[in-house]
Amino acid sequence: MQYRKLSVVSILALAVIILMMPLNALAQDPVEFLVSLDDPAAPFLESRAVAAKLGASAEFRKMEGVAVDAVNNKLYIAMTEIAKTMTDDEGDIKLKENKCGVVYEADLDKEFSIANLKPVVVGGPYDENNKDNPCNVDSIANPDNLFVDSKGRLWIGEDTGLHANNMLWVWDGKTLQRFAAVPTGAEVTGLHISANDTVFMNVQHPSAMSVYPYNRGVVGVVNGFKAGDAFTPIAAPTGDQMHTVTVAAGKYQVLGRVGEAIPENFTGGRFGQVNKKSGSLMQICNHPDGNMFLPTTKTATEGYLYTNYECQPGAVVKLYIRQNGESWDVLEGENVDFASVNGTWNNCNASVTPWNTGLSSEEYEPIAAKDGWIENVAPMTDYIGAQANPYDYGYLVELLPDQTGDGVSSQVVKHYAMGRASNEMGLVMPDGKTVYRGDDGTGVVLFKFVADTAGDLSAGTLYAAKVAQQPDDSFKLTWIKLGSGNDADLADAIAGVALPK
Which of 423, 488, 406, 498 is nearest to 1 (CA)? Predict the structure, then answer.
């Protein structure tokens, strides 16, 4: 999630409409969407507005990463900051402002539902007089990426302008320890811990004044360290350390660097390269984001690493990597082709499903209001070479290598049945059916999707939460059913939307 810096040209139309306008107001103000909220497809195409109409709490602010502790039956959700619609003394949520953010914890029941959210890792305190680190440098600031390792420890990556350097933290339920820091101007993205406890981590949009190779975005991995191992925390970077990557244990290896050629790529191309549907170069995206490692061996020592690139249009690079002693070899790769789904939009954080496929995400979905919708999808129109439909974007996207043997490129499936929102990421629970996701924006909704069949996200039921704030600033949750649907029917509905001339 690009909290401090968004791509320049492609965000012009969206900056005011999405990031600044409270989205819960969309369901209340006289905004006309291209699809009526009474349309049978509306719960999936205008999920947030329908949720608010049915009584769900559309007041969350910048809901980010999601992580599950399957051993202790816990779910974690990052809230980058507590502000705006969460602190305006209106509606269901009336908290005090916390510019440094909070990580919430929930208990999972036997059906993998949650009925409460409580703050467990709280950022701050905030000091406006501290120019470099307004948020306490020894605590989190604007939490984003989350992951739980095999020891049940929660890893927390930052996306903040309130620390001079963004940090990667480990929380054991009592104590925060600083494991890594990235160069000035960069955020921690791509946090992923594999089945053999390997830690993957990316550096997104670093300052060009960072030390090579970190003057461009990189995809990387920590070698010589396992996520469950003990380590001695690092201090906050100073001096030249502020312009490079520092880790508390092991060594950071760059697997790919924006602008460099992808090894053994049969279609050609570079890390971060986004081509138009016609094949011509559109941009080089300096925003490597979510990682999805799909092991091909039981030891998880080799497999496919998919990496999101968070631009408009979005991109994903697939690498085949193999562990070689205490480092990794990059054997081959490709830029994933999204032409079959009319491209992707702001591929942000990511996860791996229990059945070993990648789950990418489209963040900051284009607002499909009758007034202004054309400008909102201008980058995708440029990509396609024809007028883009805003309802084509804003979904979770499943990725998998072609297992049929009929081709060598990755298979791409957009899951319209899971609803349309500003998807930071989606995470499938161990039951293979229940999915929670971060909805990144202002005045947004906590959604839950339950698939009809385990291991198949193409059909199911979408729910939204109504919250009741408690005296300890926790929330009780009640789930409101929005509707049941399937990808095929919704794809037809999207194709049938009448786009005004």
Answer: 423
